[in-house]
Amino acid sequence: MMFVGVDAPAGLHSPAFLPPDEAVRHTAYAMLAGFVAAQSVTR
Question: What's the predicted TM-score (pTM) here?
Answer without folding.
Answer: 0.71
